[in-house]
Specification:
4 helices; Nucleotidyltransferase, domain 5; 139 residues
Length: 139
């Protein structure tokens, strides 16, 4: 005669509170961690003033406002003078980069004339900055 039970239970591990336990452990470790300051060598790093000056020598800024006034490196010039000034700058530094900045209301004829003058002066490394608004301001 067999009095044993016929149904067998599979082993079961309750995992319903596993997320709560992980969260509590995370909070515990965050609260008890100790942050230490690194006490290494005190080093005074050199300034990069020389590099900034070198970069300024490499870039020539050409501004044109909405009235069509042209400024090269903060000097107001006329459209015919752009070729001679930029040719001289290109002779001094053949790796010169021209930063071309115009107002959004600048007549395109003036922009085109200055771009042609830059091409004639062999200043072909040009980048355009379009986020500048100088409407109503004088150089």
């Amino acid at each position: 005669m067999d009095f044993g039970r016929s149904s067998r239970k599979d082993p079961y591990i309750p995992t319903s509170s596993m997320g709560d336990i992980a969260f509590l452990l995370l909070i515990f470790f965050i609260v008890t961690v100790v942050f230490t300051d690194e006490s290494g060598l005190v080093v005074t790093l050199p300034r990069a003033d020389a590099g900034e000056e070198g970069l300024r020598d490499m870039i020539s800024n050409v501004f044109i406002n909405s009235a069509g006034m042209i400024s090269i490196d903060d000097v107001i010039v006329t459209a015919p003078d752009v070729v001679s000034i930029m040719a001289q700058k290109m002779q001094e530094n053949p790796f010169m980069i021209v930063a071309f900045k115009t107002d959004k209301h600048t007549p395109y004829g003036v922009v085109s004339d200055v771009m042609e003058s830059l091409k004639e002066a062999n200043a072909i490394k040009v980048f355009f900055n379009t986020d500048m608004e100088i409407t109503g301001q004088e150089f």
